[in-house]
Each structure stands twice: as C-alpha cells, then as structure tokens.
Specification:
Layout: H1 19-23, H2 31-36, H3 42-49, H4 68-79, E1 86-88, H5 100-107, H6 110-113, H7 125-142, E2 146-147, H8 154-168, E3 176-180, H9 185-198, E4 202-205, H10 217-222, E5 227-234, H11 245-253, E6 257-262, E7 280-284, E8 300-304, E9 317-322, E10 327-331, H12 338-341, H13 354-392, E11 396-397, E12 405-409, H14 413-422, E13 425-431, E14 434-438, H15 445-459, H16 489-492, H17 496-508, H18 530-533, H19 539-542, H20 554-571, E15 575-577, H21 583-600, E16 608-612, H22 617-625, E17 629-633, H23 643-652, E18 657-663, H24 675-684, E19 688-692, E20 712-714, E21 735-737, H25 774-806, E22 811-812, E23 825-828, H26 830-836, H27 840-850, E24 856-857, E25 864-867, H28 875-896, H29 906-909, H30 914-917, H31 928-932, E26 949-950, H32 951-956
Parallel strand pairs: 1-13, 3-4, 3-5, 5-6, 6-7, 16-17, 16-18, 18-19
Antiparallel strand pairs: 2-8, 7-8, 9-10, 9-26, 11-12, 12-14, 13-14, 15-21, 20-21, 22-23, 23-25, 24-25
C-alpha cells in the first residue's frame, strides 16, 4: 500500500522498456493529436476539455511503476502468501481440472478473451456457437426447454429466478417466496438482499431430514399466506438428495411455481429437476473446468420451461438465417435489453459470463456424457467412502442419500476440522457438533484418508477399517434415466487434435481485439496485456476456495486490499468494496448503500431516483431493483443534463428524493461543466449522488468523482483497468463510497469481517470475482501514477483526433464548451438516412469489410454511431479507421448521386462473404473487388462466415439449443461457420436410456 506520493517514472537504467510505453498505442508524433484539434500540446487539449473546477493538480499517491518482469516477481511473492489446501468444503465451489487444451486455447487465448459481446453477430459466430453448445448442455442436464447464455453466479441466478417467478405469477402483491432451509447460505443471503427492497417476504421451507420432500411442509410454511414461488436446493447444502416431486406439486397446488438450484454434475446421475416438475433451474457451472479463483468469475446458469423464455434475464443465443438463407446465430429476444426497456426491464443484468460459459461447454465437449458421469461417480464414490467410514467408527451420518457431500455428527467439530487440515484437507464446519465433507473431481485416496483419520480421532475409537469400506449410496428412483448430451458436438471431439482444430475454427469465425480495433463507445475495448493475464492460471490464485480460512488466502486478500486502497486514491472515495461481480451488480450495490443510509437516518420515504434521459438502461433497471421510483431528467441540445429541468424535478420530489444517477463524462461523450452545481443541488435537497463510473478512463489522474460531488460510484474494471471482456464477460464492478456510506457496503454471512454490514451481499463470494483481480493489480502496478494519467490523456486525445479527422465527412453530434469531446465521440448518421436511405446497420456491416468491429450503434441516440478509440491503439490504426469511415461516406455519396440504388449498393449487401463473392450469379452493379477489398488491400483480410443476419426471423422462429442437422437441409455437419452442431443418431447414449425430447430440438423451419 502506498505510503508516500508516487514519484515520476524513473529513468530506465537497463534494457527494459517501461510498461506504459507498451500499453499506449504507438504515435510517431504525439503532438499530432493535439495539433489536429487546434491545440499546441496534449496538456492544452486536456485543459480545454476537462472543466477546471474538477481538475486535480496533485499526482496520484500510488506505488512507483514497475516493469513487467519486476511486477510479476512482486506478484509471485504475493501469491506465495497463499496456501492451497485440498478443498472439501463444498457449498457450491469445487476442485476441478481445466482440460489443458481448453486452458491454453480458450482461457489463455486472446482470440477468446479480447472479444466483445456478440452484438455484431456476423463476426461473432464462433463464440455464439460455443454459447449455443453451453445452452444445449444446460437444457439437457436440467430437463427444461430453454437456457440462457449464462449469468453471474449461482446466488444471483437464484435471485433472478425469484423475480422471474414473481413477474410470471398472477399472485397477489403480498404473496411470499418459500426458501428451502437446506439452501446454500450465500444464496439465502443474496435472496434476502434482493427481496427486501422489492417488498418480497421470504419464508423458510423445512423439508426435513428424509429422502422425500414432504408435501405437507408447504402448507405448514405458508400458514395461510399466498405464495408465488419457491426455491429448492438439489442436492441440499447438507448433501441430502431429496425427491422433490411431492413438494413441487404442493407449491403448484398453492398457486406458485418452483425454481430449483441444482449442481450440474449431480444431474448426470440424478433425475433432472425439469422431470420433477420444476419451472426454473439455476446453478453454477464452476465445477465444469472453471477454477474456483477464491470465488469467481464463474458461469451461473438458468433454464426455464417453455413459455417463460421471454422473461429470461441476460442473453439468449438463437438460430436465425442470413441474407442468403444460410443458418446463422445471433442474440435473440433483444427487446429484453435494458437500454430499450429501461425501468421496465425484467432484470438489470446486461451481460453474461461468456468466457467461463465457453470453458464449461468445452469441458463437456471434451469429456462427453460418459466422461461427465465418470467424474460424477468418482465424487459420489469418494463421498460414500467417507460416509461408510464414519458409520463404521460409530459416528452418525445425517445425509441418508447423497451425491458428493456428507454431514457427520461429531463430538467436537472444530477439532475435526483442525485435524483434517493437518492432513492437508479443508472440510466444512457446520456447527460445533457437525462437519460436512464434499468430494470432487480432484479428490484422491490420500484426501479421503486425511478426513477419515480426523473422524477416527473424534470417534474415540483406537482403530478403524480401511477408508474404502462402504458402498456408494443407492440413488433409488432418483437415478437418472434420460439421456443427455446426445448432440454430436458432445461425442465428436475426443482427441486433442479434434478439439484443438474445432476451437481454432470457432476462433477464426470471430473478430476480436487480436485482429483489429474495436471502436465501441462506452465499452473501452483496449489492450489486455499478456503480463496482466499471466497470473489468473497460477494455482496459488486459481485453486483457492472462497470459504477457506483467511490465513490460507493472505496473498489474495492483499491483492484485494491493495486494489481497494488504490481505487480509493484514484476516485477520491474513502472506502471500496470489490464484491460486485459486474457493473450492473455494482450499480445495485451502490443504490442499496444509498437506500440503507436513508433508512438508517429515518428517511424511509426517500425513494425517487432521478436519471438523465441519456443514461445507460441498467441505471433505471438497477434503481427499480433497489426499490426506487425512476424519474427521468431531460438533456439539452448540447447533450448535457438540462439543469433547469433537473431543478424542477428536485423541487417536485424534494421530500422523496433519494438519489441522482449521473454518468460522467456523460454518455454523450462530453465533460459537463455544471457537474458540481448538479451535485450541490441534489445534496441541498437531501439526496445522494450516484456517479456511474463506466467512463472513469476519462478521469483517472485528472479528476476524482469523490472530490467533486459524488457520493458513490461503481467502476467497470473491464473497461478502465484492463480486465478483458471475454466475449461479454467476465467483469468486475466494485463500488467506491464516501465515508458516510462506508457502513452500507455489501456484507457477507460467511466472511467475519463483512458479516456485520448493514446491507447484505450482492454476489455469492465475499470478494466477488477475486480470481481475476490480479489483472488490474498488475496493470496499476506497472502503470503507476504517471502512466495511468498518461493513459487518460491519450484516451481523450485519441477521441478528439478521430473527431477532428472525420469532421467534414461526418457530423460530431455533441461537444463540450470548447468544441472538444471526452474519450468518445458520437457520429450522426441520421442525415444520410434521409438523403440516401443508409442506416447505422449498413455502415456497421460495411466496416466489417474494412476489417473493423462497428462502433456502438444507436445508443445513446438512435441513428448514431458512438466511437471510442482508446489509448492503446496505434495512430496508424486510428487513421485506418478514419479512412474506412471516409470511404464509406464516399460510397454513400454515390448512392445520393443515383449511381447505385441503396438496395443494390455494397453498403446494403455488407458484410460480403467469400461465398457471396465467388458466386457465378454475381449481378450487382459494383465489382467484386470493391465488395471484398474496399480499402484496396487484401493483407490480413478478415472474412465473415455469414452475411447479414435476419434478426426478426430468429425471434419469430426461436431455436436456442443445438438443432439437428435436418433443420439445415444440406448444411455441412458440424460446420462452425453456420453455428450448427448436428445431432447424431444414438450419439452420447447413456446406459441405453431413452433420449429426452422437447420442442427445443425442432429445427427453425419447423417452428
């Protein structure tokens, strides 16, 4: 932690180049950026752009920058403070083995981790196919019809299930939600955090100790109250596996629907919840090859029964077709997106854990159904060995039917836990008289022996049988009969050669940051340096259980503490929580802190949240989830918050005002001069200011929101601090708060230092996605104060350079008082829509032919493109982008002049596939070469695998799992470019059981 002000970057005394010089894009003459905008220097440009009233003049107090070698050496010393102990704690986190071919070619491959959310589906077919495989895996395991492309973790997925069931119900407002008392404790806590602001009452549902969940438990728990839903845990936290059919029927009889939180590995052996009547199934795919990472990131999952898919939170991959009729994939049902529905959104989650979902899906592809069952049986057998031994030495085993976890009564549970630790194993302390032991893929005989030795010592016996005593418990009529993973993708790639080539084909179908610039406004797609990424697979960080004793995680806790300190320094706040595992969770945590503060001071009537019309839609959705009413504030003609309208809204809602949510710099790409005045007006009325930190990369080292009026912010570490997007996830969204909100940061029931916090947890693990926090730690450690400030300056300069180069060809919609933009600029496409009928889609798809991902389309203003070049792009790449945008404008001029009809132009036919260009029936009025090589060069050409996709067709004919080959006519089996994975007859059959069939397997043409 810093103890003195950061010093200027030291002179290089050896051969190593400072990391900041590698992170920043190469610019032959940095002054060229400033001169292009009419300023004599970058400092003059910054002075003209950032309002003087918010500028910080002192340097950031951060440790001096280290070069890459020294930063990794220091991080190695930090990692050495961790102690990796065999995890047998359970509670939803398990030891697992990431197949090396997947670890090297997905987790460590920039083609996967630098990709953006697949909003441009034509250049995202690879990861969309991988996500379709994930969805198919989930629907197969759960026995339900539709699964989404992943959620943040199991507890938040369970909370989303609760609110989904409430929306789907026709129950009265006072209807309650039943929660199985054997639910994971962190899930129960997150449910409570999410339920309380919405006025949802949680009622415990005790299903007893038997193997059959009793139907009469439901009316006993309800005591005459109406119910809209229930959450059951399968297997329970205790390890007990219960037949849920009777209790599910009882909930339905009472007027509710049922969600089940299920272990996906257990579902390879157990009857799926969907076959027991569940409407929703949620859980975590962590044990499918994703390291524990002290809590994340992990892919949560959600599957629903047919009829509930339009209420699904997050993302859903569906099958559609392109302009030539070829099968193609896209994100389906996009009306659920928050920027469209805002406060009416069904969820504030606008992301997925894509990288982790891909790993989990490929884990299943690698092992197949028979391999998954073999791993499940291994865990089941090891747990049975422990149970058999405990019984043999006279101890009582409470779990009468288990999958991988057994709970044992012992005289002194703490002594047993300590004795097991001496043998190199962590087991779970349930209470003073019980321990729980969980086996997994990594459990070996020596681990079982360590546990049985601890149990023997507790039993009072002098000697016991061999740990192998005791047969696996009979799963009885809950043994799974239906097939799963029958699609050919789960049986085709058994050799490393096969899977390696499959992963390569998928990656080749995609456009990611390793290919070229992704100029997305507000999304900050910049360099994720290899040095920053190296540590995420180190065992010391990757293999820690989040509920391991604190002294075993001293290194990771130092990373957390360092980042909390550094981020507080960068933002000017007094305290930081690293728990939120996405930007949306950070928004919710920040608003809950504000709500908790008001309630603690008796201001329970303060529930109005003012939100500018330009704000990201998650802001409004998060406010509703925090129990607030959204009131929209207008923006003026220059894109700023209309201060007069704001003051009027404040006056109208003065006694009820809870908060203002504002993004700074604004989503319109400008530094608003009145930001301090705006904050003061809100504070004067008793409200709090939530500043959305999505655009913090335009502030670091130049201004601090905690010092110019904001009370709380969430920070998108996947933007400013280089955590990769990973195709749409992982992300980290910590919050910073001023001192008066410190006590309202999110707590956690299983972390003693957080257990007493007023506000409950928003994520499953105490420190959220701790497994990737070494990425921003390394970035800050290598950049230092000067490097971070330099990055901010260059980000602003690059955006202004692009705006200056494109003026005269494209109108820049908003600028600040001095005519400059912040770190992004909005190009107005509406004039050419009127003059030539050219749309933002036409321009976005034509940019693919030039070798670019499109900028952000039609947000925050419809009919515009928001461009953010970032500080890590070379000037040559910025010029190439500007040249492409100018060339596209010239093609539009040819449409305006009548040379081409827009429908016959290369703009409307973009993107051009190789198949299109080699078609003998070419009849377009422009040459093939112009379609293929609009920039005039073929070097490094990216070929999109499909043409423009018909999104509406995909929504009308929803198919969201791997369809059979018959759905695609003569499509090549397994062709990665189409996103199809055909179903082979009999492939993946399990024990001769019949395959489950459902509407989800019907081809698009048949729907």
């Amino acid at each position: 932690m810093p103890t003195s002000p950061a010093q200027p970057r030291p002179e290089t005394t050896g051969p190593r180049t400072p990391f900041a010089d590698r992170h920043l894009g190469h610019v032959p003459d940095a002054g060229a950026y400033a001169r292009a905008t009419g300023h004599e220097s970058l400092e003059a440009l910054v002075e003209a752009t950032v309002p003087a009233g918010i500028r910080m003049r002192e340097p950031l107090d951060l440790p001096p920058a280290l070069d890459e070698e020294d930063a990794l050496a220091e991080l190695r010393r930090v990692a050495a403070r961790n102690r990796v102990v065999q995890p047998m704690i359970g509670l939803g986190y398990h030891g697992t083995v990431t197949p090396p071919v997947v670890r090297r070619n997905v987790l460590q491959d920039p083609a996967w981790y630098t990709a953006y959310t697949p909003y441009q589906p034509e250049i995202s077919q690879g990861r969309l196919e991988a996500l379709l495989t994930f969805q198919t895996l989930v629907t197969d395991l759960t026995g339900l019809d539709v699964a989404n492309a992943s959620l943040l973790d199991e507890p938040t997925a369970a909370a989303e299930a609760m609110t989904l069931l409430r929306r789907a119900a026709k129950a009265p407002d006072d209807a309650v939600f039943l929660v199985d008392t054997d639910t994971l404790p962190q899930t129960r806590a997150v449910l409570q955090t999410r339920a309380e602001p919405l006025g949802i009452a949680l009622v415990d549902l005790d299903l007893g100790a038997g193997v059959d969940a009793p139907a009469d438990a439901v009316p006993a728990a309800l005591a005459g109250r109406p119910v809209f839903g229930a959450l059951l845990q399968y297997p329970g936290a205790s390890g007990q596996v219960r037949d849920l059919r009777a209790v599910v029927a009882a909930v339905v009889e009472a007027g509710g629907r049922v969600a089940v939180a299920a272990d996906p590995l257990a579902l390879t052996l157990l009857t799926p919840p969907g076959e027991q009547g569940a409407d929703v199934v949620v859980g975590s795919m962590q044990r499918f090859g994703v390291p524990m990472g002290y809590g994340g990131p992990h892919a949560g999952y959600m599957a629903v029964r047919d009829g509930l898919q339009r209420l699904l939170p997050g993302r859903l991959v569906g099958v559609s077709k392109d302009a030539a009729g070829r099968p193609a994939l896209r994100l389906a049902l996009q009306t659920r997106e928050q920027h469209i529905r805002r406060e009416k959104a069904t969820s504030n989650i606008c992301t997925a854990q894509v990288l982790l979902a891909v790993i989990a899906g490929m884990y299943a592809v690698w092992h197949g159904p028979e391999g998954l069952r073999r791993i499940a049986r291994h865990a089941h057998d090891k747990a049975a060995q422990v149970a058999g031994y405990a019984t043999a030495v006279g101890l009582t085993v409470e779990t009468t039917r288990s999958f991988d976890t057994v709970t044992v009564q012992v005289p002194d549970a703490r002594q047993v836990v300590a004795r097991a630790l001496e043998g190199g194993v962590n087991i779970r302390l349930v209470d003073d008289g019980r321990v729980a032991v969980t086996a997994d893929e990594t459990t070996r005989d020596e681990h079982v022996r360590a546990v049985t030795a601890a149990l023997l010592a507790a039993s009072g016996c002098e000697d016991g049988p061999e740990p192998s005593a005791g047969a696996a418990q009979d799963l009885g009529d809950l043994a799974r009969q239906s097939k799963f993973c029958t699609n050919e993708v789960f049986s085709r790639y058994r050799s490393e050669t096969g899977l390696l080539r499959y992963l390569r084909r998928l990656a080749d179908a995609d456009f990611a940051l390793d290919r070229g610039m992704i100029p997305l406004g507000s999304c900050t797609m910049k360099l994720n340096a290899t040095t920053e990424m190296e540590s995420i697979t180190w065992s010391e960080f990757a293999d820690l259980h989040p509920f391991a004793p604190a002294d075993q995680a001293a290194g990771t806790r130092q990373v957390v503490a360092d980042l909390e300190t550094w981020l507080a320094e960068v933002t000017g706040y007094d305290a930081v929580s690293m728990q939120p595992n996405s930007g949306a969770q950070g928004e919710l945590a920040g608003l809950l802190a504000i709500r908790g503060y008001h309630h603690a001071h008796g201001d329970t009537a303060r529930d109005v949240c003012l939100i500018p019309s330009s704000a990201h839609g998650t802001n409004a959705a998060s406010a509703v989830m925090a129990g607030m009413r959204v009131v929209v504030v207008a923006c003026d003609a220059d894109g700023n918050v209309d201060v007069d309208d704001l003051r009027a809204r404040i006056e109208t809602h003065r006694d009820a005002l809870a908060a203002l949510m504002i993004t700074y710099p604004s989503t319109h790409g400008v530094f608003e001069e009145a930001v301090t005045e705006i904050c003061d007006a809100v504070h004067e009325a008793g409200g709090q200011v939530y500043l959305d930190g999505a655009n913090l990369n335009a502030l670091v080292g130049l201004a601090r929101p905690g010092k110019f009026g904001a009370d709380v912010s969430h920070l998108n570490l996947h933007k400013t601090f280089c955590i990769p997007h990973g195709g749409g996830g992982p992300g980290v969204g910590p919050i910073g708060v001023r001192e008066h909100l410190r006590d309202f940061l999110p707590g956690h029931p299983l972390e003693p230092t957080l257990a007493g916090n007023v506000v409950g947890p928003v994520s499953g693990a105490p420190y959220g996605s701790a497994g990737i926090l070494t990425i921003p730690w390394t970035y800050v450690r290598m950049m230092g104060a000067e490097g971070l400030t330099e990055a901010t300056t260059r980000a602003i300069a690059a955006a202004n350079y692009v705006a200056a180069r494109l003026r005269g060809h494209w109108d820049v919609l908003y600028t600040g008082r001095t005519g400059t933009v912040a770190h992004e600029c909005i190009l107005d496409v509406r004039p050419v829509a009127k003059s030539a009928g050219v749309t933002v889609d036409d321009i976005a798809k034509r940019l693919v032919d030039h070798g670019f991902h499109a900028p952000t389309m039609s947000w925050p203003v419809a009919g515009t493109l928001m461009v953010e070049p970032t500080e890590s792009e070379d000037q040559a790449e910025l010029d190439r982008f500007c040249d492409a945008m100018i060339a596209i404008r010239e093609e539009i001029a040819r449409v305006e002049a009548g040379e081409w009809a827009v429908a016959d132009s290369p703009l409307r036919h973009a993107p051009h596939t190789a198949e299109d260009l080699t078609d003998d029936a070419w009849d377009r009025p422009y040459p093939r070469r112009l379609g293929a090589y609009p920039s005039g060069t073929s070097r490094g050409k990216y070929w999109p695998p499909v043409g423009r996709i018909d999104g509406a067709y995909g929504d009308r004919n929803l198919v969201c799992a791997c369809p059979p080959v018959s759905a695609f006519g003569e499509a090549e089996p397994g062709a990665a470019v189409t996103g199809t994975v055909p179903e082979a007859s009999g492939a993946g059959a399990v024990d001769g059981a019949p395959a489950r069939t459902s509407a989800r397997t019907v081809g698009a043409a048949g729907r």
